[in-house]
């Protein structure tokens, strides 16, 4: 992936620090909760959130089932920094990986 093919969160027009506020506008919490119920993580599973952004969904999954291995992948290191802080604050054990999501994820 080169610089010209990568589009950061919110495009090139808004800073990463605004992402969570902007994405929360269309009832994000509701549809993420429904999505998490559909995934229904179980202990021992490995679940990869490709394009995890600031990690809201990965953190939700990690809190729903601490025995599952949740991996958040995103090419944007700035949003991953936000995701790591969010996971630490929530006490969610999520593993983070920077990249386009095409690499194989290895189990711990």
UniProtKB/TrEMBL annotation:
Identify a single GO molecular function assigned to this protein: demethylmenaquinone methyltransferase activity
Which EC class heads this enzyme's classification?
A: transferase
Q: What is its EC number?
A: 2.1.1.163
Q: Does the keyword Nuclease apply?
A: no
Biological process terms in GO annotation: methylation
KW Transferase (keyword) present:
yes
Tell me the domain of life.
Bacteria
Q: Which InterPro entries match?
A: Methyltransf_25, SAM-dependent_MTases_sf
Which keywords, in A-to-Z order, does the entry hold? Methyltransferase, Transferase, Ubiquinone
Looking at the UniProt entry, the stretches that span the membrane are none
Protein name, UniProt field: Ubiquinone/menaquinone biosynthesis C-methyltransferase UbiE
What is the species of this protein?
Nocardia macrotermitis
Its gene name is ubiE_6
């Amino acid at each position: 992936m080169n610089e010209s093919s990568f589009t950061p969160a919110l495009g090139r027009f808004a800073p990463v620090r605004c992402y969570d506020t902007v994405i929360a506008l269309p009832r994000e919490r509701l549809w993420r909760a429904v999505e998490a119920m559909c995934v229904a993580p179980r202990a021992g599973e490995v679940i990869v959130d490709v394009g995890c952004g600031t990690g809201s969904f990965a953190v939700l999954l990690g809190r729903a089932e601490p025995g599952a291995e949740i991996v958040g992948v995103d090419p944007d290191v700035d949003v991953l920094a936000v995701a790591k802080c969010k996971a630490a604050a929530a006490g969610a054990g999520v593993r983070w990986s920077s990249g386009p999501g095409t690499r194989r994820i290895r189990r711990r």
